[in-house]
Give the backbone structure.
Amino acid sequence: MKDFLYYVYYMAVVHWESLYAYQAEVRYFILTALLLIILSIGFVAVLYSRRWYLLSREKKWSALKFRFQFFIYDALVERSKQEVLSSTDLIVNKFKQHELKSGTEKQLMIDLMIELKKSFSGNSKKQFQHLYICLGLHHISIAKLTSSNKLEKIKGIRELSEMEYHCEALEHAFKNWQSCPDTLLADEVKLAAIRSGSIHMLYFLYYQKEPLSQWLCLQLQYHLEALPHEKLPRLIYWLNVQETSSIVFVLRMIALFKQVAAEHVIPLLNHPVDEVCMEAINTLEVLEARQYVDVLFNLLEVEQEDVKIQAIQAIGKLGNSFHANLLKSLLRQQAEQVTFAVKAAIELIDFKDSSNKSTHYSITH
Amino acid sequence: MKELIIQVAVFLSEYLIFFYALAISSINLLLAIISIRETRKYIRNNKRIDDQAILSSPSVSSISLLVPMYNEEVSIIDSVRSLLSLQYNNYDVIVINDGSTDESLKSLITYFQLIPVDQKTSGVLPTRKILGVYKSKNRAFGKLIVIDKLNGGKADALNAGLNISESSLVATLDADSIIAPDALLKMVRPFLQSKERVIATGAVIRVANSCKVEDGSLVNVQLSSNLLVRFQTLEYLRVFLLSRIAWSKLNGLLIISGAFGLFDKEVAIKAGGYATDTVGEDMELVVRMRRYMQQIKQKYKIFYLPDPLCWTEAPSELRILNRQRNRWARGTAETLYRHRKVFFNPRYGLMGMLSYPYWFFFEYLAPYMEVIGILYFISLLILGAINWTYFFALLALVYAFAVFMSVLALMAEEFSYHKYSKRSDTAKLVLTALLEPILYHPIILINSLKGYLDLLLGKKSWGNMKRKGFKEKKMESTNRVPA
């Protein structure tokens, strides 16, 4: 081996010196080509070693996953038999001692529990949370919140919120990171706050300066819909937020959850931004605020056609024959689109009236 | 005087070619570094994104999938079935039969129980005559709309689709493309997330030859045993993983591959839709959309996702590859000529000052430069003035660089999506990388030059692009033949 290395060294020196026989450009070409070839060979070696590593890791992990899954179901079944609680603790302790040794194994367990938890509901879901705490896995997730790596922080927040584990560190994150400049982290915190049912959910809306992305709105809505009704935030508090897209979002949520009394929405009909005004009309429509149809008539005086049309449509849905007669007076002076909307609204009111009468007739006869 | 001319020619040939090669290599290396960095960042940031919210929301942006069809009898049923089962809540599939002469339309009508309907089209974009619009009477295929029209080419068919679509976004794809079930979910994400207006998104296209396809969906990724296909596999990896992603980062993309792209319909229509008088309609539309956005002075973005979301059939026969590459070269040249006003025009921002010049110098001119190099070498050979040491050293460098870039693309693939999982696949691809500069590159060079010549001669046709279809490929994957 020593001789071989010496031979390689000798050849390299000889060739290096012989390179000087060539002109400078040729020397650079050869050296660069050599460097590229060496790099290519190195990359291929990395490719193969990574492939080998991945294969062996995959084998190890699938075996671990199988064992862990078996343990989880075992522990869940034992816990469901209320009388043998000590038996569960026995399983947990045994498992902690023999299986969850390295950080990787613990992380694998957390990931697996989050994944499995999604297919359970009610009491079984709570048992996952208990198991998570019994195994001490929450410490790992909490530790991630103090990491300097943003992705680690995100991971920790997601784990704790998915497992519905409440702690001070998490609440601190909800309070302070929702409006942080890093959008990836901030978005995760916003969603996690809702997932956990935190008192700080939607806190960021007060400080929102830039428009909310459609993606974030969809995600927020999805997570709010997943919350139990009693945990939903009191949306009325957000009706005075400043940023346009935030108010629109809040109005949509009010319409979705039918949570706020229509009188609180009325002031927004005078909002200087058309989008907000239109969303407020839509919300009144969804809340079926029939008592405020007269207020909607005020909007027929505005110049913006979109707002006017939206108001007419809402009147059509909420109004009665009296309102239909009032609408008729608008038919002549308005632009084509508005006239069309008025006609549609009158037709809708007439249709509602006639169907009401027929229902009444069928009931009385 | 004569001597002076010769000296100038020698100087230009020697230094121009050298510095050109140096510039192209450096830029490609830089793009590769940016691409790898961006891909890693994308994967890291999107690893834990839960698409369930988008998947379950009815208020998510609506998408129309436009599928132009011309004599696709072999694969159309499987393709449409696969498209009808994508993971997205709000989309429809519009198949446009561009005057097929085979049984494509008939088989669609029979299989999907289609009946003629009276569907209005906006008619904003002029197209050849629409013969009929069909919808299925079976609710299971409610998302499907089929347009039958006179033959007018792919661009004309896509314009017909744009006219009939009622969605805010349109995805265009080839009838023989296979897209991943979550492709729309991923492609729509930039439209929903970006603060600036997104006008188009594209995704990495991969070669589907030899892959196992069942019911129009990709079941198992396999590397083709056909060397020509393997060359293209490697080429696609290099182009998409080491270049397009970087251009996306720089917001300088000039092309979204026709095989699969998602566009803002409003901008596409306002920009004038697809041009019917070019064979490079995909690139042409993107350039026109960008010009339109620059003209109305609105900030915009075009994204390219590193996700391999679309799998397409690459030509497995040399004559078909020749036609395809000839067409691509003509398309590039046509688009660059048509939009020559953009060239180094600061009014067009990054596109004018960076993307267009790059395409002109390093995509369009590259074949010419190679020809100049070859002619210079031949003339020196005839004159007996070749410095062989210099020549071989330079040749070694060029070859080593070409192989290095291919290996880098394999690395990028390994550390990103890792689709070719067999160890033998890596060996085959490395071998392909060694052979590619010698065997494949000359084919591409010749076809590019032929394409430019054909364009000068006024050739406009697409050429017959007969496909094998994926059913045959399944056989190919089981009956492997040595390359």
User: Anything to note?
Assistant: The two ends of chain B are 54 Å apart (CA to CA). Chain B touches chain A at residues 44-45, 48, 50, 52-54, 56-57, 59-61, 189, 191-195, 389-390, 393-394, 396-397, 399-401, 403-404, 407-408, 410-411, 414-415, 418, 421, 423, 426, 430 (CB under 8 Å). The mean pLDDT of chain B is 89. The CA atoms of residues 28 and 104 of chain B lie 42 Å apart.
